[in-house]
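Sample intake — RNA polymerase sigma factor
Collected from: Aquipseudomonas guryensis
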Amino acid sequence: MSGNDVELLTRLLAGEQQAFRELVATYQGAMRAVAYAIVGSRNADEVVQDAWLAVVRNLEGFQQRSSLKTWLLTITANTAKTRLKQNRREVLLDDLPGPHGSVGGERFAADGHWQTPPNAWHEDSPEALLSEEELRQCLEKTLASLSEMQASVLLLRERQGLELEEICNLLELSLSNVRVLLHRARLKVFATLEHFEETGQC
């Protein structure tokens, strides 16, 4: 653990309320993102509340083998998966259909970063701002249309910046499956961006 984690944990174990408030302020957003990725927005807040209860109950048993963040997100993921009451689903690589026709792997480099990035957007007028809001709504619809696992991997990687190995552990998926899920989800998002740029519509 980092020095900050050790210091915060010491204060937490001493029962300092301010330390717990700092813990919540620091990690609540990331925990909700994990919960949202797994169970969706309707149950995310309840999952996070249950996860915090589990944190309080198990704080003294924390072995400090990982960072506080990793421990908290693992508890959140386990709580969310319990809420779903369903088994882990592996995605067969050969069975994944190619989305959106010709939008293909040439968009991404081997390391998963953009090879052909979308054009930059400039919000310097009311019309552009309106267009940005319409695009945001369009992207949210695209996210909602993704499979559960695709949305989970995309949100954890792009919104929370988790490493692929961390996502594998949280969602109990193999690295190859995580990479394919992320790739397919990115392709769908890119297709939405491309279509909106060309037509101004979702």
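Post-analysis note: The first helix runs from residue 3 to 13.
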